[in-house]
Amino acid sequence: DGGITQSPKYLFRKEGQNVTLSCEQNLNHDAMYWYRQDPGQGLRLIYYSQIVNDFQKGDIAEGYSVSREKKESFPLTVTSAQKNPTAFYLCASSTNRGSYEQYFGPGTRLTVT
Amino acid sequence: AQSVTQLDSQVPVFEEAPVELRCNYSSSVSVYLFWYVQYPNQGLQLLLKYLSGSTLVESINGFEAEFNKSQTSFHLRKPSVHISDTAEYFCAVSDTFGNEKLTFGTGTRLTIIP
């Protein structure tokens, strides 16, 4: 089955700790994205990558970092600099060949206390 | 830059009644438009999209949306809703120049009343 996996489903961390969220896709998609979802605010773009070894900041990149060493993988690190990290994080991917549809993973709910 | 407005944060509807979820967008360039659905604690699934051609697009589960360029709208409709349609619905827009970033609205929570 082709798709996007995110792990873990639920993640708990203490304030001040960095945490890395996993995102893997086997759809052979070139582009990958990270979104943050908060109640009543929709989805906000954190980082995106349109090709391996390249990525760009989205609208709310402060306090986050990413890497794109492999086409299949786009991990997101939530650093201790992120002031309000508790949220639902969604990873997505798409081709660069004109369909413009983004496919989403099941999400990771991060709780920082 | 684009923006998307979903004016209704919550829409309660009786089962088997019709529903319309409103979406308006703002953009200085041509756009592609999307509706996504999200069931509780899950990721988003594409419901339907407008890229070009017929302005009326349909999904396999009875939803339809019409692109209205003059009113910059892409409202989602269903003539008769079911309990299983309870979910959050997001409208999204991207430009047509190969930049595949999507801009999302804040979502509309559709609640079906038995």
What's this model, at a glance?
The complex is a heterodimer of chains A (113) and B (114). Chain A has 113 residues and is mainly beta.
How many DSSP helices of chain B?
Answer: 0
Structural class of chain A: mainly beta
Order of helices and strands of chain A: EEEEEEEEEEE
Look at the structure and give the mean pLDDT of chain B.
92
Greatest interface and its residue counts? A-B, 27 and 23 residues
Secondary structure: helix percent of chain B: under 10%
Q: What is the terminal-to-terminal distance of chain A? A: 36 Å
Number of strands of chain A: 11
- The proportion of strand residues of chain A reads over 45%
Low-confidence stretches of chain B: none
Q: So what's the oligomer here?
A: heterodimer
- Taking all Cα atoms into account, the compactness measure Rg of chain B is 14 Å
Helix/strand class of chain B: mainly beta
Shape of chain B: globular
What sort of overall outline of chain A do the alpha carbons produce when their principal axes are compared? globular
Helix content of chain A: under 10%
**Uncertain residue ranges of chain A:** none
What's the pLDDT, averaged over the residues of chain A? 92
Radius of gyration of chain A: 13 Å
User: DSSP helix count of chain A?
Assistant: 0
Distance linking N and C termini of chain B: 41 Å
Task: Describe this protein with a few key phrases.
heterodimer, A: 113 residues, mainly beta, 7-stranded mixed β-sheet, 4-stranded antiparallel β-sheet, 11 strands, 51% strand, B: 114 residues, 6-stranded mixed β-sheet, 12 strands
